Amino acid sequence: MLRHIGTSIRITIVTVVLLGLIYPLAMTGIANVLFPKQANGSLVEVNGKVVGSDIIGQLWTKPQYFWGRPSAAGKGYDPTNTSPTNLAPSAKKLIDATKATIASLRKSDPDAVGPPPMDLVTSSGSGIDPDISPESAYWQAPRVAKARGLTLDAVKAVIAANVQGRELGFLGEPRVNVMQLNLALDGKKP
Amino acid sequence: MTAIGWLQAVIYFLIILALTKPLGLYLVRVFEGGRTWLSPVIEPIEKLIYRLCGVRVDEEMPWYTYALAMLGFSLAGFAYLYVLLRTQQWLPFNPQHMPPMAPDLAWNTAVSFLTNTNWQFYSGENALSYLSQMAGLAWHNFVSAAVGIAIAVAVVRGVARTSAKTLGNFWVDLTRATLYVLLPISVVGGLLLVMQGVPQNLHAYQTVSSLEGFSQQITGGPMASQEVIKELGTNGGGFVGANSASPNENPTPFSNFFEMLLIFLIPAGLVYMYGKMVKDTRQGWAIFTAMSVIFAIGFTVAYWGEAGGNPLVHQLGVAGANLEGKELRFGAAASALFATVTTDTSCGAVNAALDSFMPLAGLVPLVNMQLGEIIFGGVGSGLYGMIVFVVLTVFIAGLMVGRTPEFLGKKIERREVQFAILAVLVTPVLCLVPTAVAVLVPQGLATLSNNGAHGFSEILYAFTSTNANNGSAFAGLGSNLFYNIATGVNMMFGRFSVAIPALALAGALAGKKASPMGAGTFTTHSPIFVGLLLGTIIIVGALTFLPADSLGPIVEHLQVLQGKTF
Q1: CB of B242 within 8 Å of any CB in chain A?
Q2: Helix H or strand E segment including B118
Q3: Which residue stretches of chain B have pLDDT < 50?
Q4: Of A47, A98, B52, B192, which has the fewest beta carbons less than 10 angstroms from its beta carbon?
C-alpha cells in the first residue's frame, strides 16, 4: 500500500511537469509560429493602434455605427467578466428587460422596418458576442445611413459585403461581425 | 426547426459513427499493451515515466488494489490543486496578479477538477493565474479523464476475463490513456483550435481603446491547449466564466462543431473497445444503438423547445427562436445539440446559458444527467455506468423467464446484483436528498437568481450535475459557503460511489467461470435486448426523478404557456 502512495506522489509530479508545463508551453511556441495572429487574440489595428479583437464584441452607442446585442458581461462587453443573464424564460426581469430594449430601439431607430430581430433584443451567452444577424444589420441600416448622410442602398451594400454565410454551408448561422462592418463603413477595414 | 439545423446534427452523428470503430480498435491495442503507430515516439517517454515513478509494469491488481491506487492518486491530485490555488499569488505565470482563491472556493474547485466534474463557481478570467490554469486545471483535465478511462478499461476486463483475480494495472492504464490517447489528440486538436482563433499566449491582458473611445481589456492566456482537453476529456471546466459560449474558447461555428466531436469521440470509441474486448462486437453495437436512441430523443426535444422560442417574448412583438443566452454564430440548433452532447456525456461544457433554455429544452440536460450520463457517457464513467445497467437488465430478463440470468456466459448472482443496485441507487439519493435540504435552509435559497419553479430547477440541477460529475449548470445559482461545501461533498460521493461498486462488480465478474451458451441463453445483442435495456434505463430514471422534475421544468413549462412570470 505504501508503495502505491509513493507512486501517487511521484506520478503527480512527473505528469504535472509533462502535461502542465511542457505541453502548454510547447503548444504556445508552436502556435505562435504557425498562427501568430490568432494565438495573440486576433487583434485589430487601425492606424497602428490596437482598437479591439476580431473575435470579441464591443459596446457601440453612436448612431453612425452598427450596434451589437445586449450584454450581461460586467458593465457591458467586459471580457474579464463574461456572463449571460441566466434569466429564466419565465422571469419577470427578463420580460421587462426585453420590453425596455425594444422600446429604446424603437426610439433610436424610428425609420426601421418592422419589429427588431430577436438577436438584437436578447443577451448573448458570453456577453461579448462579436456578431449580429444580417437581419439585425439591415434593420439598423436606416439609422446608420441617416447619421452618415449616405443612401440606404449604399449602407445595405456594405452590409451585404460583410455577411458571413454558414461555415462549410451547414454550420452555425449567417452573421455579420459588428466591428468589421463598422470598420468597413469608416473605410478603415484592413 | 429547420432542415439545416437537423443536417448539423445528422452529419455530426455520422462522423462519430465513422470514427467509433477505428478509434475503438486503437483503444484495444493501447490497453492490451500492443504496439501502435505512435509507439516509436511515445514508448521512450512511457518507459521513463514508469522508471521515475516506480511502476512495475507486469504487476496485476485485484479490484480493491486497483481502487485504492485510484483513490490514492486522486487524493494526491486534490491536495496539490488546493495548495496551488491557495498560493498562486507567489508563483510564476501570473501576469494579471491574481490573488489566492478563498479556502471554501479552492476546496470546491479542487474537488470539482479531481472528480472530472468541473463545476464552475470560479470565473477563470478574473480568479486564476495562468499557472493554475495550465498546471492545475488543465493537468487535472488530463489525468481525471485518464482515471475515468482506466476504470472503464478495468471494468471491461472484469467482464471479459474468466476465473481471474485481477483487473490490470492502474498506473499502466493511467499512463497509457494519457500518452497514447489524450495527449496526441490534444496536440493536433489544440492547434486546430488556435487556427480557428482560440488564443494561446502567456502575456497579460491588453487594454485597448475602441473606435468609440471605450476602454476594453482583451483577455488571453494558454487557452487552446486547455480547451481541447476540456472537451476531449469530457471535463467541461472553462478557461473563462462563459465557458464555450465565449468567443475566446469557441470562436467559430466550425470550432463549435469540432469541440462537440471531441466530446463524443472517446466515449463512443470505448463502447466499440468494450465489444471487441469481450469478444462480442455485436453487443458493443447493441449498446451503441441504445445510446443513440436516447441521444436522438434528447436532441429532438431540446431543439424543438429552443426553435419554438419563448411565447412570453413573442407577445412583445418580436419573432423567432429563443436566443436569450445564445451566441449568434451558433443559433438554436447548434446550442441545443451542444447541450445534449455535453450532458449525454459527463462533459458539462456549455456554449449557451442553459438557465435561459425553454423549460422543456432545459429538462433534456437534466434528465440526461439523471439517467447517469450513460449515453456515450463521460470518458470512461459512462461506459461503466452502462455496464451496470446491462447487468441489471440481464437480471430482470432472467426473472421474467424464470432462469438464472447469464451475461456473456457468466451467471449473475446475488453479489453482482447487489453491487449493481448500489451503483444505481446512489445517484437518486445524492441528487434528491441534498436538493430537499437546500430548499429547507435559508442559505440554500440565498443565491438563487430566479424565482418560482425555475428557482427549484436551479437547485435540482446543481445537485444533479455535481453528483453526476457533469459540471454544467443553471448558472444563475450563485456561490456561497453552503453551496461550495455541499456541492463539493456531492461531487466526491458522486465520483467514487459509482466507480467503486463498478470495480467491485467487475472483480466479482472476473472471478466467474464462463459456461457455454445454450439454446435457452438470453442473447445480449438482439433488438429485444436493446429494447429491454432502454426500458430499464427509462423506468429506473423516470420513476425516480419524475416527481422532482415535475416541480421544476414541467410546472414552469405550463406556467409559461399560461403567460405567468415570476
Answers
A1: yes
A2: none
A3: none
A4: A47
Residue B431, number of CB atoms within 10 A of its CB: 27
User: DSSP string spanning A150-161?
Assistant: --HHHHHHHHHH
Name the phi and psi angles at B407, rounded to 5. -130, 110
Q: Which of A7, A34, A88 is opposite residue B54, by nearest beta carbon?
A: A7
Q: Is residue B482 part of a domain?
A: no
Distance from CA of B453 to the nearest CA of A (A): 9
The pLDDT tens digits for B256-312 are 999 999 999 999 999 999 999 999 899 889 888 988 999 999 999 999 999 999 999
Q: What percent of chain B has pLDDT over 70?
A: 99
User: Number of folded domains in chain B?
Assistant: 1
Q: Residue B67: which domain range? A: 3-14+24-281
Give which of B356, B116, B409, B381 is closest to A89, Cα–Cα: B356
Measure CA of the first residue to CA of the last residue in chain A; give whole Å. 64
pLDDT, tens digit (0-9, with 9 covering 90-100), for B60-95: 999 999 999 999 999 999 999 999 999 999 999 999
Q: pLDDT tens-digit profile of A68-109? A: 999 999 999 999 999 999 999 999 999 999 999 999 999 999
| Minimum-distance CB partner of A11 among B171, B198, B453 | B171
3-state secondary structure at position A44: strand
pLDDT of res. B376:
76
Nearest one of B430, B438, B471, B469 to B121, comparing CA atoms: B471
Taking a C-beta distance cutoff of 8 angstroms, is the pair B388, B412 a contact?
A: no
